[in-house]
Amino acid sequence: MADVADMTQSKEKIIEYTNNPNIVTKFVDLASLQSIRDFASDIIKTEDRLDILINNAGIGLSRDNRTKDGLHPVMQINYFAPFLLIHLLLDLLKKSAPSRIVSTSSSLAFLNTLSVKNLNFDDKYDRFIDKCLSYANSKFALIIASDIFAERLRGTGVTCNTIHPGCVATPIISNVYPVAANVFINTVIWLYTIIYSKYPWEGSQTLVHVAVSKKLEKVTGKYFWDCKPFVKPLGAYNKQFCNQIWQATEQILSLKPEERL
After folding, report:
1. 219-241 pLDDT tens trace
2. Amino acid 186: pLDDT
3. Chain mean pLDDT for the chain
4. DSSP of the chain
């Protein structure tokens, strides 16, 4: 989650790379539900169209167990935030149809332990493995939500898909633990990425493909891996379980009746 300075720097890099000065950036704090609501309200007021909504921002681990909203940081930033944002921007997406929603999941979703009870992840668990599982759970929950959005939006011209970008060399878990632990963790990751990882540009290709490919104009409810549809975690095919996760999420976020899909 970038701060304002990072956002400005990113904007400058995009302009430099594309030679297109017509770039507008807006700040949103995904660890704040109010910030997400303010951001969505601003988009609705200032933009006539929303052709593509990409939910890509996320964190791997967190030092904290709760945000000021009382939610687990990894679950909030990776899952609850895009769930809320999509709901708030649905009218604009429908108005702009054909439009697309693409969310970045992960292969780690296959290692999930997700349930209704641990959807907000109990803060009593502080082991490293539990923190890793919260990431897997958030990415699996994102697949579940995307599939339900896809089903409920059929016929509106809005498609909704998820992707696995591959193991990408980014600092997604940097600076989470004390210096010594960070050095060890990031050294292991560095050695791993030398052999297996993709650079950010390579990792972005499936995301870009699903967002803009003309061949996928009507494709929805899929999970893509290396630009091709891929099998989902087993629980994603259990409709009763998925609906329970969806309903529990609505309650946790206190969605208003008019905001619910």
Report:
1. 999 999 999 999 999 999 999 99
2. 55
3. 87
4. ---HHHHHHHHHHHHHHH-----------TT-HHHHHHHHHHHHHH-S---EEEE----S--S-S--TTSS-HHHIIIIIHHHHHHHHHHHHHHHT-SEEEEEE--GGGGG----STTTT--TT--SHHHHHHHHHHHHHHHHHHHHHHHHHTTTTTEEEEEEE--SB---TTTTSS-HHHHHHHHHHHHHHHHHH-B-HHHHTHHHHHHHH-GGGTT--S-EEETTEE-PPPGGGG-HHHHHHHHHHHHHHTT--GGG--
> Model-level pTM?
0.88
Judge contact between 109 and 140, C-beta under 8 A. Answer: yes
Whether the CB-CB separation of 177 and 118 falls below 8 Å is answered with no
Beta bridge partners of 168: 198
Residue 52: count of CB within 10 angstroms of its CB:
15
CA dihedral angle for residue 29, residue 33, residue 37, residue 43, rounded to 10 degrees: 30
What pLDDT does 4 receive? 73
Contact predicate 27/4, CB 8 Å: yes
Active-site residue, 135 included:
yes
Q: Is residue 179 very low, low, confident or very high in pLDDT (cuts 50, 70, 90)?
A: very low
- What are the residues facing 228 on neighbouring strands? 225
- The residue annotated as part of the active site, out of 135, 192, 199, 237, is 135
